[in-house]
């Protein structure tokens, strides 16, 4: 154990959170993929657990490698990655494979797929951290600061929006939060919120008049209406999630004893939190929320140590995005929010999402590692990141 601790750097609490989430992920995925195994793998229930274990292990390896690199280099790396991600998002809309009735992934060799929005999300957040750092001295200027910040945000969100409204909304909200922390003019931020509301209303009117122009819009409206109307027949998956949570009680039905996994659509991704609560009870659900809160708390502690610098913007942007997504996923499972299709970071079954989550956490660990190694160095990184 001492050897392992000597090989990893950065915030040890965050490493522990990652380990606990990974263990919970393995248990929950193994329990929730039984129906999937009988449908596609002839009843081989170990298949998806082994596959998920390999993906998680690879993700931890990526996280370890990412945290070894000085975070100042990520500003340049992901500036390039952003301009790669933008055409990939457009390509996905044109030739992407359908995932949950929308073109969200690009096909890769050997039957693999790549969800381009995962790359775009991380690239945009890091780009914002970099540009906010560079433009701090003139951050209130509309032309020289706000436009270079907001144009990539609008472009990326616009390209994600047709296939994945919730991801675009989360990314746009994260960007606004990061701009607020970066001291962008409140007048500019609120103007963007107002424009966003107007755009959404316009799209709603267009979709109602010409349904074929935005085929996914009907799905979003239906989900909101179903959420508002508790008696709607379209609330099936939410009702099943609520049954799972009710059956969990205080201590749950214990690992592997979930019954609602046989009825819930996507119990291994969108509604995996309901399975966790069913098997581990209120205690298990509260522990899951607590782990994400610890991740955010530790990120804030890192930010406090490097205020108004690239490392601070980078850390809070990445951490907020992950925890915000987690809260939305869990909010859907307990029927506090309409169905969104968001996964639970580092817990839900997946490939691309887990790996980019691993990169994101690795970057946070890289920032904390640099602060541990040389607390004075962070004050010089603003110029280097530029």
Describe the strand arrangement of the main beta sheet, using strand numbers. Answer: 1-2-3
Radius of gyration: 21 Å
User: How many strand segments?
Assistant: 3
**Residue fraction in strands:** under 5%
Task: Find the structural class using helix and strand composition.
Answer: mainly alpha
Give the uncertain stretches in residue-range form: 377-386
The largest pleated sheet is described as: 3 strands, antiparallel
Overall pLDDT score: 84
Shape: globular
Order of helices and strands: HHHHHEEEHHHHHHHHHH
Number of domains: 1
Give the helix tally.
Answer: 15
> What is the distance, rounded to the nearest whole angstrom, between the alpha carbons of the first and last residues?
39 Å
Residue share in helix: 55-70%
């Amino acid at each position: 154990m001492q050897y392992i601790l000597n090989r990893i750097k950065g915030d040890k609490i965050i490493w522990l959170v990652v380990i606990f989430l990974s263990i919970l992920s393995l248990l929950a995925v193994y329990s929730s993929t039984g129906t999937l195994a009988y449908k596609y793998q002839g009843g081989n229930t170990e298949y998806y657990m082994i596959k998920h274990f390999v993906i998680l292990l690879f993700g931890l390896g990526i996280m370890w490698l990412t945290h070894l690199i000085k975070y100042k280099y990520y500003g340049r790396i992901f500036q390039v990655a952003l301009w790669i991600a933008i055409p990939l998002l457009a390509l996905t809309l044109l030739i992407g494979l359908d995932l949950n009735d929308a073109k969200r992934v690009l096909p890769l060799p050997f039957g693999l797929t790549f969800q381009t929005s995962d790359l775009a999300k991380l690239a945009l957040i890091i780009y914002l951290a970099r540009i906010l750092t560079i433009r701090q001295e003139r951050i209130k200027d509309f032309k020289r600061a706000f436009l270079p910040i907001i144009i990539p945000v609008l472009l990326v969100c616009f390209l994600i929006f047709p296939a994945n409204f919730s991801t675009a909304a989360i990314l746009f909200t994260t960007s606004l939060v990061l701009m607020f922390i970066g001291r962008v003019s409140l007048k500019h931020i609120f103007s963007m919120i107002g424009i966003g509301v107007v755009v959404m209303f316009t799209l709603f009117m267009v979709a109602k008049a010409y349904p074929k122009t935005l085929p996914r819009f009907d799905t979003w409206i239906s989900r909101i209406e179903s959420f508002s109307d508790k008696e709607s027949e379209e609330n099936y998956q939410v009702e099943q999630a609520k049954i799972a949570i009710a059956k969990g009680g205080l201590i749950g039905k214990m690992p592997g004893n979930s019954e609602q996994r046989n009825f819930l659509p996507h119990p291994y991704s969108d509604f995996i939190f309901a399975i966790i609560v069913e098997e581990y009870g209120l205690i298990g659900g509260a522990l899951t929320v607590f782990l994400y809160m610890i991740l955010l708390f530790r990120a804030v502690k890192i930010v406090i140590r490097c205020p108004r610098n690239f490392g601070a913007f980078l850390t809070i942007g990445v951490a907020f995005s992950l925890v915000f997504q987690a809260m939305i996923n869990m909010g859907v499972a307990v029927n506090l929010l309409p169905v969104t299709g968001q996964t639970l970071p580092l817990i839900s079954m997946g490939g691309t999402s887990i790996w980019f989550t691993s990169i994101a956490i690795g970057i946070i660990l890289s920032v904390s590692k640099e602060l541990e190694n040389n607390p004075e160095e962070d004050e010089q990184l603003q110029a280097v990141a530029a």
